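::Amino acid chain::
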Amino acid sequence: MSSRIDGDKSGQVPSRVRRILRGPQPESVPGLVGTAVMIVGLLDIAAGVFPRFRHSRIHAVTEVLPGSLGPFAAALSISAGVLLLLLAHGLKRHKRRAWRAAVVLLPAGAAAQFTYRHSVIGVVIAAVLLALLLRHQSEFKALPDPRSRWKALANFVLMSAGSIGLGLVIVNVHPGKVVGNPGLYEQIKHVVYGLFGFEGPVDYAGRVSWTVGYSLGALGMLTALTTIYLAFRPEHPAARLTEDDEAKLRELLAKHGGRDSLGHFALRRDKAVVFSPSGKAAVTYRVVSGVMLASGDPIGDVEAWPGAIERFMEEAKAHSWTPAVMGCSETGGEVWTRETGLDALELGDEAIVDVKDFSLSGRAMRNVRQMVKRIERNGYTTKVRRVSELTGTELEQVRGAAEAWRGTDTERGFSMALGRVGDPGDGDCFIATAHRVEEGDTSPFGDLKAIQHFVPWGKDGMSLELMRRDRGADPGMNELLIVASLEAAPALGIEKVSLNFAMFRSALARGEKIGAGPVLRMWRNLLVFLSRWFQIESLYKFNAKFRPRWEPRFVVFRTTRDLPRIGFAAMQAEGFVTLALPRLFASRRRPKPVRTCAHHHMTPVPKHPEREAQAA
């Protein structure tokens, strides 16, 4: 179903890179400490919430945890448990700040135990754990992740939901002490009041009311303090290419840009870059949810790739990020796996058309030929030019149309999209436009009906970056512009054109052939089913219309268990999973297009019911 490139297992991986890759092992101190902290945190919460738990058979275990059995100690135990749970993941990832927090919290917890419980055993165990952390402090050197104000909002939402849920448990674990029979509404009201430090409508006999009040107040305080900290801490800026970095990348692309059709996408300005020691190669990346996500092959001289890859791996280790590469070529995958010991899986195929071999004649091109002729008879004309040849008015119309015809609030794309049109530095890009003059047309974009944007692929190639069209245009605009671009290519000095990326193309192609096995057929049927919501099968068939040659693209990863995390990070990078405020104050609703996508996206684009691919 997918081919695999294995890392070099014969000892050819450079020793320094092997040390970089080795990283944390399952039995390492940070992993054990993180797991222990998580367990202790759960026990702390249980000890503070459930009164019977403190007198159960594991009472001897909870005796060494921070806190006493009084109301204040219950709140302190719950607070410590929540903080320890938040801290555990950072310790597992070797984070320096998590280590510093643990070093501070252990003596504080020991002091609380001795003050409220006179627990010498707790002090001794805290001292042993503190000594263990100090002894292995060299293993906790990972730098912080890029920061975002959105983390404060996410923390507030998650902590509030968790506090309300845990608060309901706290309110209901003392059934014999509750006065009256309060309903769910009164219980929720009591929890919300308690989180803000006020007394709610539920009353208890004895000192239970104080215990519940302290516990709810502690949860509310933790929610407020962690949110305030995340909101006002110094923010690390998101990844951005500096002008100097962009200039160096353009120099490398001018010399070696013809090797990879995705090379120009390294110029996205929401990426960071690491260069080889010689400066002759570079790897661009973005960090998403702890995944250091590179895209395409390294830029520059192939002989200098190992140096750039080594710098990439060193950066990943320094921050304890998960390294991954999306959409590299077969050559790139071989270099990555050989130099690092990582593995690679085939993700799909890129459709490439050789201009000299393209023709509309023949039975195989009959559908495309008839569609193009029909659209031309309806009065549509096309233009294919470099961006630098557009007038200022035309460029503004193209930019406005690209924005208005986009079907989502956020611009999608990362691996195979540039994310901009008509930038002053992108004059060597190509624009294909479809036009039709209509009486009474009041469109702000004039007679413009569809656009396609191509980026350079070396000196004799171009790579399709996006396709957008007006909702009212006839079906077949994409076919029309692709054909127009291929026919205009010789005059522009273009010999090869990279079209769309077809995810799982080989599985779809092999699964529909006679003799395909049951597993392959089942996999193909699943992909066809998913195509109801994502352009998987339709995009493959759309590409196949132009009789391209297929070039495989790979995802490079460290271990199989990292693949779900890498997949989720890739969806975030591509814009399919976003944290964005609702557009409550939008001045006007943007008209929804029939098809809007950057077709070079590694992640399949959600399809519209009126797909041009089906209309063909």
